[in-house]
């Protein structure tokens, strides 16, 4: 007796292959997404660890010579003292005989003179008027003058009508005068000098420059363009 296969259970080989390929593609895509996420997490961890290693190496390289740490923190890793390559001259330290020193001396005509008189007698306590002053001793103090207010210069570009043809011609403003209100070239040069030359060394920050502008020349630092 011959057996007839059930046609309902039969499956086209092409359809089975297509289904298998689709499942494989879906699985590979899921694995690809998982690998990409893992790679991103690994790269982030590597960047964090690299920054941490760099910070630790920087801290290990700090000592009393290149940071604000005290010499006692150097421990046994103190760097040797740098010896001078100059040969001893046999002279004593300090100024040599015959050297003309530079000392602050009093001037004959001071800019400001302030007279101070005793208010009472040191012996009996009587009041002393300033009239019977007999002599005085002088001491001079050299100091910076008080900050002066800014000098405001107004530029006026006038318009004139020609008497020959009637055309009105207006004068041009000087070079550099481009806004209705602005700071001059001297202030900009002062700020640039402090920022790039006098305040570039050490731990001085822009806050000190801002304070200098506000206290010395009485201008807001944020309004100075350079």
Can you summarize this structure?
By secondary structure, the chain is mainly alpha-helical. The longest helix has 48 residues.
What does this structure look like?
This protein is mainly α and 226 residues long. Among the domains are: 14-69; 159-223, no CATH class. It contains 3 helices and 2 strands. The chain is flat. It starts with 12 loop residues before the first helix and ends in a 10-residue tail after the last helix. Residues 1-8 have low confidence and may be disordered.
Task: Outline the secondary-structure elements.
Blueprint: H1 13-60, E1 159-161, E2 168-170, H2 185-198, H3 206-216
Antiparallel strand pairs: 1-2
Write down the overall mean pLDDT: 77
What structural category characterises the helix and strand content?
A: mainly alpha
What would you call the shape? Answer: flat
Strand order, sheet with most strands: 1-2
**Rg calc:** 43 Å
Low-confidence stretches: 1-8
Instruction: Please count the helical segments.
Output: 3
Helix content: 25-40%
β-strand percent reads under 5%
Helices and strands, in N-to-C order?
HEEHH
Termini separation: 106 Å
Using DSSP, what is the number of strands? 2
How many strands, what sense, and barrel or not for the largest sheet? Answer: 2 strands, antiparallel
Key traits:
226 residues, mainly alpha, two-stranded antiparallel sheet, 3 helices, 2 strands
